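Lab manual, section 2.4: Encoding a predicted structure.

Procedure: take the sequence of the chain (163 residues), apply the prediction step described in section 2.3, and record the output as structure tokens. A sample record is shown.
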Amino acid sequence: MRIGLYPGTFDPITLGHIDIIRRAAVLVDRLVLGVAINRDKGPLFTLEERVEMIEAECVKLSAQTGTEIVAHPFENLLINCAHDVGAQVIVRGLRAVADFEYEFQMVGMNRALDNSVETVFLMADANHQAIASKLVKEIARLDGDVSKFVTPAVREALLAKFA
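Recorded output:
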């Protein structure tokens, strides 16, 4: 069984994330969405809220692709999370050159820790390249329309947070 790990904070999950999830799901038999706890980032949504949003959004994707998609919170090293879930591949989404520079460093460090886990990069669809959770939260906080960037359910969650 091919197991992939797509890590992120998912604060909140965006259409860009969903695009990468959909495309990664056809490459593996099981896709684990590693939900980073990362207290340093000070997420808007609690871990439980992020996991709940991810699970709700991925039910449909799982049915469409035939791939099991699950959320897995983690707070350890990414490579250790990959070991914990049995992943042979780490999936990362790229939006721009700046993403690549950071990801290039991460791959090097992860390969130094364990070169048996591959990293696969998926380019964000052109329609989703500008989407970043940080910017989505800022738009929502300032009462802007985020419907082009997130699903209706996530939009409602954002509106509730900033009400």
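Check your result against the sample. Strands lie at 3-8, 30-36, 68-74, 89-94, 118-123.
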